[in-house]
Amino acid sequence: MTFGGRTVRRIPFVFCALALTGALAAGCSTIYRSPSVTAGVSNTAKVRVVKVTPETVLVANRAPYQPKTLPAVFRVSAGSGVGSSPRGGGTLPNPPSTQDASRQGLRLDPPPAVDPGPYTIGVGDVVVLSTPSTQGTVGELSGLLAAQNSRNGYTVQDDGSINIPDVGRVRLSGLTVDEAEALLFQRLVENQLDPTFSLEVSEFNSRRVSVGGAVGQPGVLPITLTPLTLGEALAAAGSVSVADIDLSSVRIYRDGSMYQVPLEDLYSRSDLQNLQLIAGDSVFVDTDYDLGRAERFFEQQIVLRQASLAGRQTALEELSTAINLRRANYDEQRGNFAQALELGAVDRDYVYLSGEVRTQGRFTLPFDRSATLADALFDTGGGLARETGDASEVYVLRASDDVREFGAITAWNLDVRNAAHLAMAAKFELRPDDIVFVAENPVTRWGRTMSQIIPSLITAPINSLSD
Predict the structure, then answer these.
(1) Buried b (16+ CB within 10 A) or exposed e, 59-79
(2) Where on the phi/psi map is residue 319: left (φ > 0), alpha (ψ -120 to 50), or beta?
(3) Same domain, 141 and 94
(4) In a domain, 121, yes or no
(5) Is 213 helix (H, G, I), strand (E, B) or coil?
(6) I need a surface site. Which of 86, 157, 200, 418 has the fewest CB within 10 A?
(7) Do both 272 and 240 map to the same domain?
(8) pTM value?
(9) Mind listing the pLDDT tens digit for each residue in 196-236?
């Protein structure tokens, strides 16, 4: 046949048919075979396909599994535990005894009136947590017993906190009883403990007043929920014991200043008897106006208070050092674990993603909790491949651990063509060695098959002609 001035050989139809047949045969030898899930029994497995429904999710989640746990070092705090309580500063000694001295004139110089406000909890106070009890006594709050069971309470330590098992350290210093109850209620709720309780201060040790001189029982008096007045303090110390009221006075040392109230004025005026004392006051009953003896008493109180504060400061520094050392040790242990984890030296549980997901790979099950199908799909997997995946064929393939069911595999099938079914993916818990598989859609399967056949159809006739 002549075409464009050239003679072209006509290829017989039979040759074309043979070439096409050969191309198909050559393509079929390597034709694409897509993976799929088929129910039934084969030589290697027994596959059972189960539709994922709210009911079957419960069945699948009953498969026993204990998640891997983080080391205990991740659950401890450097500021809690044995050895984390600072030392105290000790108690004050007995005041000096009285001495005879020359008489001096008396002058009324009372301290200014103060309003101490509501009582605030401080260091050394003992607080008691109590629940309603039919025994008529303060009951023990279940699960919250302190180490000081003999006192049925918790001593506020030098850092202003109490240490409650299962709750941790709670700072109460500087809070009123109502504020402390609100804070404890919040901490109990946060730790999922019964918040039915009441709080009371059983021992008042943080705010005290020293009383010495000519009294029946010199010592240290606590300031309680009720403000302490000068008259009450003297009565609590065994009352004044003097031979001549006209020649005796009460000296009060407060914040670096000394005040004087003659006994004659004190007993004749109720406003002086009702003078409110504050924490740190030192009261001295002088019978002979010896300012030197009163000064020595006040100096002794100042030195003791400074020694107590210095001891507490040293204890706090020691505590801070111990906590820093403990924290460094915990950080080192956690760092070693993280490094071993990065190097793959820690035994982990895995789930594998295959098929039409954005990223095929291995999903690591987390510590201390279970992961769901949604976690694996949308974390490591990056979600379904919308262009190629079949939303009706999302599977979780789980092999049976029962030796009596050797080779048995359950294919849990989730159809997410209805996007609402993704809610079940967030409930479906994964187990170690599960396979998450998403099948390809029919169009993708056909396209991939044709992409392998068409090149063969083109090259086979050319090869035949060249031969």
Answers:
(1) ebeeeeeeeeeeeeeeeeebb
(2) alpha
(3) no
(4) no
(5) strand
(6) 418
(7) yes
(8) 0.45
(9) 888 899 999 899 999 998 898 899 999 999 999 999 999 99
